[in-house]
User: What shape does this take?
Amino acid sequence: MILVVGGAGYIGSHLVKELVESEKVLVLDNLTTGHREAIDSRAIFFKGDLGNQEDLEKVFSSYPIKAVMHFAAFSLVGESVVEPMKYYQNNVAATLTLLNTMIKHNVKKFIFSSTAATYGIPNVDIIKETCPTSPINPYGRSKLMIEHILADFAKAYGLEYIILRYFNAAGAHETATIGESHDPETHLIPIVLQHLLGKRDRVSVFGSDYDTEDGTCIRDYIHVTDLAHAHIRALDALLTGKKSNEVYNLGNGLGYSVKEVIETCERVTGLKANVVLSDRRPGDPARLVASSEKIYAELGWKAERNLEQIIKDAWKWHQNQLY
Ligand code: UFG
Assistant: This one.
C-alpha cells in the first residue's frame, strides 16, 4: 500500500487517480485546503494531520505501507513571506513528524514534492538540478530544509528518497472530474480562465518591465497529469531499487511569458481578456525554466502535454467546476 499524504489536494489528487490503477492507495489529508470529492473512490481515505503523532500512529500501525508520497504543503510564495511560521510549522516541523514516524515503523521509501522555488533567482536560462539552490522566500527555504534533512536521514537511518522539484503545475484531468480549486486563487492560468468565465473583471499582469522578451515573467508550465506520471516513474524506480536519493526537475523545458499565457487562453477559449498592467509581485524571479533532461535520461519520463493542452483541459474543468 502507498500512503499519499495530501492526496485530496490539487496535485496529490491527480497522482492518486493514476496510482490506483496499479497500487493500493491510502490518502491522509486534513482537508484544510484539499477536497474530499477530489479523492478517487478506489483509494482509502483517512482524515488526519501529518503533524499529529496520534493520527500517524493509527495510519502506520493499521496499514502495510511500503512507501510514502508527500504532497501536503502550503505553497504560496507571497503568503510564506507574511506568515513564515505557518510554512515552517507545516512544511518543515510536521514533515519531520511524518519522517520520524516512518522510520519508527521501518517505512523507508519517500517521494518528496519540492519546488523550483529552491533555486531562487538562477543565473542560467535553463535550470539543471546541479544549479545552486538559494531560495529567496520562506516557502522555497522550507522545501530546501527538508531536502537537506532527507540527505542526512538517508545517511543516518537508511531512508531512500526521490525529490521532485516542480515548476508551474497547471491544467486538469482530461475527464474534467478533478482540477485546480484554490481559495483564494493566486495562480495565473485559473485566474485568466475565471476572468474569461465572467468571475473576475480583469487580469492583472504583475510587472511588464522584466528583462525578458516582452517584459513579463517567464515560467515553465507543466500539465498536472504529466506530473502525476513522473511520480509514478519515480515511485517505481524507488520500489525496484533502480534509483534513490536523487533529485529531478519536473518541467516542459519551454518557457512562456505571462502575456503568451494570456494570449493562449484567449485563443483556446475564443474570448478576449481585459488585461491591466500592474506592479511587480514581490518575490517573482523573471524566468524559471527547467531542464528535465535528467529524469528523461534516468527514468524515461518527459512532459507530453503542451501549454495549449494544459489550457484546454483547465478550461473544461473551470467551465464545470465540481468543487
Ligand atoms: N501572474 C500575473 N497575474 C496574476 C497571477 C500571476 O501576472 O494574476 C504572474 C506571476 O507574477 C508570475 C506568473 O504569472 O510571473 C506565474 O504566477 P503563478 O502565481 O501562477 O505561479 P508562480 O510562478 O508564482 O508559483 C509557482 C507555484 C509555487 C512555486 C513557484 C516556483 O505556485 O508553488 O511556481 O517558482 F514555488
